[in-house]
Amino acid sequence: MLLVRSLWIFVVLSLIMISCGKESIVHVREFNIYAETNDPEVKETLSQLIDQYNSDVNGQVLNLVDTEEQANSSIRFQRNMLATEHRLGHARWSTLKKTNGDAFEAAMSERKTVIQYSMHMIFDLENFKRKTRGRFDKGSVEWRHLYHLFCHEVGHGLQMDHDGNPRSVMYSKISQQSRDDLDYEDYFTKAREFFTQP
Question: d(Cα 42, Cα 135) in Å, to the nearest integer?
Answer without folding.
Answer: 10
